[in-house]
Amino acid sequence: MFLTHCVMVWILGTVLSLCLPVCSAVKVTQPYKVVSSNGTARVQCFVQPQPSFNQIQAFSDQTQHYPYPDPEELRVTLLKGLYGTQELCSSMLNFTDQVEEDAKKEREVQCSAQLREGAVEVTVSGLKAKHTDMYRCKIEVFYPPPYLRLTGNGTLIHVLESSDCPVLEAQRQTAHRGDEEEDDDGTAPVSVPVVVLVILVMFVLIIIIYFQALQCKQERREIVRAASAVLKKVDAAAFSC
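Above: the chain's sequence. Below: its structure in token form.
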């Protein structure tokens, strides 16, 4: 009877370890912010303490060790929202066969995961400006036991507008500059005749002023001559008397 009770407890403990998530000191950290300019974003999910397969080089400052067997099969899910309630996309990783299975490819936004630089890097494609939000990495380890469910602290994915907009703006600026250059080319020939016309007008005015001054001098000479003739006649009349 005692042996049967021990076997039942052992079976129950094994089932619980396989089916229920384990609470431990293992956690997932994420960068604070990621900017996407072409509809694609890469979010790095770091498991701390790191499993041995996830370490590209030894970390001297890592005092704790991963307390479970190295994961061989896991699923990475991006949860949208401050509290991570809405599933955006997910991807399966199998480290034994080095196979990546992308889940639910019919979705508008798709995820692919790989090991990179000591982290599980999730590449999200098909993003638009409306998808800007906080996203949390949920990592589920299916094999080997125990089943682990870890959630990250969250990353703000800022999705910029489509890259076509700057191109259109650049095209508009180029066209505007071309119009300005055409306007400049059109006004340049017109300015030369205007300058020539102004010079001609000034030259004509100078000639007119010169002839007027010359005419005034001639009139003055004639007046002086007439006055001299009158004086001579008066002197002659007085002498005769």
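The first helix runs from residue 2 to 19.
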